């Protein structure tokens, strides 16, 4: 029998930075960092 694996996932809705693709990317990366800090893997 295989071991159970717990996976935590998060979903967010982020508004884009309409002036800058880099700004949108920064928002996405920050959301991922926050989710990881909060225990999502």
Can you describe this structure?
The protein is mostly helical and 41 residues long. The protein is elongated. The protein has one helix at residues 21-37.
CA-atom Rg in angstroms? 14 Å
Number of helices: 1
Structural class category: mainly alpha
Give unreliable regions as ranges: none
Number of E-state strands? 0
SSE string = H
- Percentage of residues in DSSP E strands: under 5%
Indicate the percent of residues in helices: 40-55%
Mean pLDDT: 90
Q: Based on CA inertia axes, which overall geometry fits?
A: elongated
Biggest β-sheet: count, sense, barrel? Answer: none
What is the terminal separation in angstroms? 23 Å
Concise structural overview:
This protein has 41 residues and is mostly helical. It has one helix spanning 21-37.
Keywords:
41 residues; 1 helix; 41% helix
């Amino acid at each position: 029998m295989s071991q159970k694996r717990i996976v935590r996932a998060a979903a967010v809705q982020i508004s884009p930075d309409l002036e800058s693709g880099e700004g949108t990317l920064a928002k996405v990366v920050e959301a991922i960092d926050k989710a990881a800090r909060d225990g999502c893997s």
